[in-house]
Amino acid sequence: MRNLLADARLEDPCPPTLPPFSLTAEVTPVRRRRILFVTSELTDFVKAGGLGDVSAALPRALLAEHDIRVLLPGYRQVLKGAVACRVVGHLPGQAALPPCDIGELQLADGLRVYVVICPELYDREGTPYGDDAGNEWPDNHIRFARLSLAAADMAAGLATPGWCPDLLHVNDWPSALAPAYMAWRGQATPSVLTIHNLGYQGACPLGSCAELGLPEHAGLPESMEFYGKLSFLKAGINHASHITTVSETYAREITGEAFGCGLQGVLAQRRREGRLSGITHGIDASWDARSDPHLVARFDARRLQGKRRNAEYVERSFGLLPGRGPLFAVVSRLVQQKGIDLTLAIADRMVEAGGRLVAIGRGEPPLERAMAQLAERYPGRVGVRIGFDETEARRIYAASDFLLMPSRYEPCGLSQMYAQRLGSLPIARCTGGLADTIVDGVTGLLFREGDPDSYFEAVQRALNIHRYPELLNAMRCKAMEAPQYWSKAVRPYTRLYRDLLAELPVSVRR
């Protein structure tokens, strides 16, 4: 079997890379530090992408060692949820940023969540970032500057009597302005900015400085000016104590022109300074084929009969004919970044070679239509559902033989790890976190170039592997054991927090 696995591997699909330093050393227990985790999404209430999942899982995993609390905008979904929210403080407005209340709610498992209550900004139908038609809110710069300023105020000891964070951990552009507000005020609280996706930078007109309450020098290139606009994300990169990305490979990729989105220069400088590192995500422990209540039948790596029952359910649900070829799956946002157009480009060849395809997701309307048309062209061979449902998604992972992830870039990716845990082998481009979490020919399949031919070569390898059940099952076993849960993935964060807090002058340590 070892030879079969070796034969299935693509020779050196991704040259090995080493980060410039290590965040994996053992952590000595210290006093529970107060961490404010600032996010625009929390799956418990509202989610637009992977940030919501991470924001729900990472703070919970850190609770064992830290007094960590979450700060979230007071969206309608949050304030009308089942958990009662009590007002604990009030913050004044600044420039065009309206005043707000700070609410607090405690979830059943003990996680405390602070809420920025400002109905004129957040009490709306739609997603965290736009309306139900997919249009971004025109005042997003005001909405998320308000979130960032609230975080900076809380770090200054305002609004939450009896609890003041020792460190701020902000996420992506919606909260990236918080370290800048603190720096402009001279606050000493250290901060971590995690970049989940560099492609979204929170740009707004250069003339917005006044309404956001920014100093004049905020509009300079060394602060947050970016090609004639203001970039929230650039402000965070320039002013946070440390920047992390969500995988080691992505931390390296974004310092180059191909993936740097115009910010590669400042990111390369932060890496040279030792202030940029990659910490690969874990996944929630609920992703376990032996116990997942969402599944039609449960199974484990050695006894896979339950996987077949999930496949039968998905075949019925999506109108697929039973087949002897592999079942490929797409569980994804239907957007260009995810390479959905590449899947469409090879779909004819994949079906003609005996594969079947099931897809679930929502995204860009042209890609939604193209996926729906593909299903119409191949009834019984392709099933597509526009939308998303957690239970259906998990059953698709558990049912499928291979998950398709031809992403043009993928900072970390969670879907490949979800699929692995449920016995589906990811077929993915060798980029970002996909390169860090898939061992080619062992726990999935990787391809280098972002073009249809390179992609289809990997699919052809999958078709060949499917003809050898012993090899396929051996790879499934390896894949199901591969992803790490958050309980282990959090250790580098604990060490990073400790190091940043140790750098504070003794006079300002709490």
From TrEMBL:
Starch synthase catalytic domain mapped to chain residues: 34-268
Catalytic activity from the UniProt record: [(1->4)-alpha-D-glucosyl](n) + ADP-alpha-D-glucose = [(1->4)-alpha-D-glucosyl](n+1) + ADP + H(+)
Binding site for ADP-alpha-D-glucose: K47
InterPro entries, alphabetized: GS/SS, Starch_synth_cat_dom
GO biological process, one term: glycogen biosynthetic process
UniProt KW keywords: Glycogen biosynthesis, Glycosyltransferase, Transferase
EC category name: transferase
Pathway annotation: Glycan biosynthesis; glycogen biosynthesis
Record bears the keyword Cell membrane: no
EC number: 2.4.1.21
Reported function: Synthesizes alpha-1,4-glucan chains using ADP-glucose.
HAMAP family named among the record's database cross-references: Glycogen_synth (MF_00484)
Designated name of the protein: Glycogen synthase
Organism: Pseudomonas delhiensis
